[in-house]
Automatic annotation (TrEMBL):
<keyword id="KW-0479">Metal-binding</keyword>
<feature type="active site" description="Nucleophile">
    <location>
        <position position="226"/>
    </location>
</feature>
<comment type="similarity">
    <text>Belongs to the glycosyltransferase 6 family.</text>
</comment>
<dbReference type="GO" id="GO:0006688">
    <property type="term" value="P:glycosphingolipid biosynthetic process"/>
</dbReference>
<feature type="binding site">
    <location>
        <begin position="134"/>
        <end position="136"/>
    </location>
    <ligand>
        <name>UDP-N-acetyl-alpha-D-galactosamine</name>
    </ligand>
</feature>
<keyword id="KW-0808">Transferase</keyword>
<keyword id="KW-0464">Manganese</keyword>
<feature type="binding site">
    <location>
        <position position="249"/>
    </location>
    <ligand>
        <name>an alpha-L-fucosyl-(1-&gt;2)-beta-D-galactosyl derivative</name>
    </ligand>
</feature>
<dbReference type="GO" id="GO:0046872">
    <property type="term" value="F:metal ion binding"/>
</dbReference>
<feature type="binding site">
    <location>
        <position position="156"/>
    </location>
    <ligand>
        <name>an alpha-L-fucosyl-(1-&gt;2)-beta-D-galactosyl derivative</name>
    </ligand>
</feature>
<dbReference type="GO" id="GO:0005975">
    <property type="term" value="P:carbohydrate metabolic process"/>
</dbReference>
<dbReference type="InterPro" id="IPR029044">
    <property type="entry name" value="Nucleotide-diphossugar_trans"/>
</dbReference>
<keyword id="KW-1133">Transmembrane helix</keyword>
<keyword id="KW-0812">Transmembrane</keyword>
<dbReference type="GO" id="GO:0001962">
    <property type="term" value="F:alpha-1,3-galactosyltransferase activity"/>
</dbReference>
<keyword id="KW-0735">Signal-anchor</keyword>
<feature type="binding site">
    <location>
        <position position="134"/>
    </location>
    <ligand>
        <name>Mn(2+)</name>
    </ligand>
</feature>
Length: 277
């Protein structure tokens, strides 16, 4: 109720997190009693490693779940090239080897498979909550406990004010990601999602199965795994939604509703970075 200018609750009763809707001190006391470790997965494959990883990790140290135990899981084709950073006490970094793919679309979609596999075993034993993020972004403000919930997704900064008929859902009935007229809730950006480990495992596994189904049909969803994630969260309502503060594109003129930015898009350079390795 502290924010009248934005939607702070979904029709199914999940909170939408905006600056001014939570009290970090109350959250700190509440979670302080629990033995909490939070995972943060990120993919740095091919040229994305040199271009983005260091800044992503350095700024995460400054702003992501500061004061809490965090394990960074870096998935990469070149573990030896991962920058060695001094991490705050209680925070550690692990690398996981993955194979580069010829097409960036396949790297993007395979992430769901790699995550689902990794969550099956080690990660779920080490952390309670896990966030999965794109690497081509960096933190500029606090990203803290207010973002935790059983399942968490993010409003896309370009589409959060649009009605669902105009957002870029997959509209091909042959794709498993298809959403028809009247379907879908919001448009979610796959650059950030998370939640309790078993829930994220379920999401990543379901999205990957949907990707495979599309491959068998010879189709590819409009925004690859993001389209499947949108379908998934329409069918399995998220427990919490992060406002676009949590992944803002600074190229968009800020309206009064965006009072802070916490994570921002880095310069994309798709053409150069996505050329086959
Ligand atoms: C772009 C973004 C893509 C995808 C797309 C959806 O701005 O870079 O990752 O989310 O929007 O239209």
């Amino acid at each position: 109720r502290s924010r009248q200018d934005v939607l702070t609750c979904t029709p199914w009763g999940s909170p939408i997190v905006w600056e001014g809707t939570f009290d970090p001190e109350i959250l700190r006391q509440e979670y302080g009693r629990r033995n909490l470790t939070i995972g943060l997965t990120v993919f740095a494959v091919g040229r994305y490693l040199e271009k983005y990883l260091e800044q992503f990790l350095e700024t995460a140290e400054e702003h992501f779940m500061v004061g809490w135990r965090v394990i960074y899981y870096v998935f990469t084709d070149r573990p030896g090239a991962v920058p060695r950073l001094g991490l705050a006490p209680g925070r550690q970094l692990q690398t996981r080897m993955v194979e580069n793919q010829k097409r960036w679309q396949d790297i993007s979609m395979m992430r769901m498979h790699w995550l689902s596999q990794a969550l099956d075993t080690a990660i779920c034993r080490e952390v309670q909550y896990v966030f999965c993020m794109d690497v081509d972004q960096f933190f500029v403000g606090a990203f803290g406990l207010e973002a935790l919930a059983e399942s968490v997704t993010l409003l896309h900064s370009y589409f959060y004010r649009w009605t669902r008929s105009y957002v870029p859902y997959d509209r091909n009935p042959r794709s498993a990601a298809f959403l028809g007229p009247g379907e879908g809730d919001f448009y979610y950006h796959a650059a950030v999602f998370g939640g309790l480990c078993p829930r994220v495992k379920n999401l990543t596994e379901s999205c990957f199965q949907a990707v495979l189904q599309d491959k068998r049909q010879g189709v590819e969803a409009r925004w690859q795994e993001e389209s499947h994630l949108n379908k998934y969260f329409w069918q399995h309502k998220p427990a919490k939604i992060l406002s676009p503060e949590y992944c803002w594109d600074q190229a968009i003129r800020r309206r009064g509703d965006i009072r802070v930015a916490r994570l921002v898009w880095a310069e994309k350079q798709y053409r150069r970075l996505r050329q086959a390795a």
